[in-house]
Design brief:
about 400 residues, alpha+beta, Butyryl-Coa Dehydrogenase, subunit A, domain 1, Butyryl-CoA Dehydrogenase, subunit A, domain 2, Butyryl-CoA Dehydrogenase, subunit A, domain 3, four-stranded antiparallel β-sheet, three-stranded mixed β-sheet, about 55% helix, globular
Length: about 400
């Protein structure tokens, strides 16, 4: 009986949260997304509404002031947001990956110091992993953290950092022992707050994923207190951040589902009002085949994403499941955005419709949080490891 009551409470909480998100999207995002995205403007007003909703604490435990949502519920939120404007999901996703690393690997003192501020949205940020010469191969980063007094001095360069400009804190991956073998044992994760000595002002220009600030910056003798070393022990940074990237890959998968679904929905609507040769184009078999394939891609991607989210919620290893979800859903977004453009014809190519935005946003999903080529390698290695002869 107790388990049934808890399950009912979880279902009811999810329903209420999703209804709140739907109202937020309808009222505060949908009417403004087209113009803000077109002008590449950071959506400050939308961010303030997300703070009120508690989205910056979505997956942070209630113990620290967060909503304590399951990743299964979180994925449904991301799908809904991305179907309206994908960039908005990136503003809280990078932030929550940082929070997940602290909640999973931080010291007791770090959790109590940082997580309540993260959950309230008072302090927002993201993760700074990628460098100009190191992306998929994170062990190849060059940023260094050298001991200095009661802390460290960071030197190096980072790129493709979501929330890099507007955020107030970044989780920065750096090498504390460049000579360590294997290389990951020489990597550590630091929480670095913005200051007079550490500012990020350069926003990278992108094909899509506009509105969200993607920062690029250098670190020149930036001092970080020793207490900001996540976990308090050197050499564990890569493992700490990779545990958060499972959450990130589920997020990317949910974004893919959202874009793929939006493309399908708009294509179904358009196919019923656009006529050729005296009848709506939805009555042409060629269009029906496209719609059927698009719908199948959406449902398959959603099932993969739900499976990965359930595994994450159970505390199970889910790098293979998250990789499958990310691979399937991002490819679905790519496929459906192109098919939607073809189905809409010239209007799909027009800035007046949302289709061209989905078409520009979708490719990022095949690159971010580990390329799809890397996901295939992760999947294959796990298949072999889990099925020994």
């Amino acid at each position: 009986m107790m388990a049934a009551a808890e399950e009912f409470a979880d279902v009811e909480q999810e329903r209420m949260v999703l209804e709140s998100v739907d109202r937020f999207l309808e009222r505060d995002v949908a009417p403004y997304a087209h113009d803000l995205e077109g002008d590449d403007v950071y959506p400050q007003g939308i961010v303030e509404k997300m703070v009120e909703l508690g989205l910056f604490g979505a997956t942070i435990s209630t113990e620290y002031g967060g909503l304590g949502l399951s990743v299964s519920t979180y994925a449904k939120i991301v799908e809904r947001v991305s179907a309206v404007w994908m960039s908005v999901s990136g503003i809280f996703n990078s932030h929550l990956i940082m929070a997940a690393a602290v909640e999973r690997a931080g010291t007791k003192e770090q959790k109590h110091k940082w997580l309540p501020r993260f959950a309230s949205g008072e302090l927002r940020g993201g993760i700074a992993l990628t460098e100009p010469d190191a992306g998929t191969d994170l062990q190849g980063i060059r940023t260094r953290a050298d001991k200095s007094g009661n802390g460290y001095k960071l030197n190096g360069a980072k790129a493709w950092t979501s929330n890099g400009v507007e955020g107030g804190v970044l989780a920065i991956l750096a090498k504390t022992d460049p000579e360590a073998e294997p290389r990951h044992k020489g990597m550590s994760l630091f929480l670095v707050e913005k200051s007079e000595d550490f500012k990020v002002e350069k926003r990278m220009k992108k094909l899509g994923y506009k509105g969200i600030d993607t920062g690029e910056f250098t670190l020149d003798e930036v001092f970080v207190p020793g207490e900001n070393l996540v976990g308090g022990v050197e050499g564990r940074g890569l493992q700490q951040i990779l545990s958060g990237l499972d959450l990130g890959r589920i997020n990317v998968a949910a974004r893919g589902v959202g874009i793929a679904r939006a493309c399908l929905t708009k294509s179904i609507e358009y196919s019923q009002v656009r006529e050729t040769f005296g009848k709506p184009i939805c009555e042409h078999q060629a269009i029906q085949i496209k719609l059927a394939d698009m719908a199948t891609q959406v449902e398959a991607a959603r099932l993969f994403t739900e499976q990965a989210a359930r595994a994450y919620d159970k505390g199970e290893r889910c790098d293979m499941e998250a990789g499958m979800a990310k691979l399937a859903a991002s490819e679905a977004a790519l496929h459906n955005s192109l098919e939607a453009m073809r189905l809409h014809g010239a209007y799909g190519y027009s800035k007046e419709f949302d289709i061209e935005r989905y078409y520009r946003d979708a490719p990022l999903l095949a690159i971010g949080e580990g390329t799809n080529e890397l996901q295939r390698i992760i999947i294959a290695r796990q298949l072999i490891a889990r099925n020994p002869v």
